[in-house]
Write a structure and sequence with these properties.
The chain is mainly α and 126 residues long. It has three helices and no strands. Helix 1 runs antiparallel to helix 2 and helix 2 runs antiparallel to helix 3.
Length: 126
């Protein structure tokens, strides 16, 4: 049960660090004028969204429910667990319906989000 608690905490820390990364990268986007730097920052934001925020949220919820089940709590009987799962669903909807489309629009606005060094980045125009 200790490993389950450890991975639950690790996934929640990953989710929070994804939120912090997104905030810091968005600040960097406001101060950068170079298209290559903006494209790299948007790509970093997309990766932080998928690898930290979304996966941390889902993994944290699954492992949290497993921990609650191990302690004998049932979703049908525990008001706290019902509220926690409701908040998880609200946050998941907010990320998928709010943050993800905004990130896609940002990627399109900076020209596809090709990071420097990626295939096609910096190629001369015909």
């Amino acid at each position: 049960m200790l490993w389950l608690r450890y991975f639950h905490l690790l996934s929640v820390i990953g989710f929070v660090s994804g939120q912090i990364t997104g905030n810091l990268v968005s600040r960097g986007l406001r101060t950068r004028a170079e298209p290559e730097a903006r494209a790299a920052l948007v790509e970093l934001m997309m990766r932080a969204f998928w690898m930290l925020q979304l996966s941390g949220l889902v993994l944290g919820a699954v492992l949290g429910n497993l921990l609650a089940t191990r302690k004998g709590l049932r979703v049908s009987e525990s008001r706290w667990l019902q509220e926690a799962n409701g908040l998880f669903l609200l946050m998941l909807l907010a990320l998928l319906l709010g943050a993800f489309p905004a990130l896609r629009r940002m990627r399109a606005a900076v020209g596809g989000g090709a990071a420097p060094g990626a295939a096609g980045a910096g190629a001369p125009a015909d």
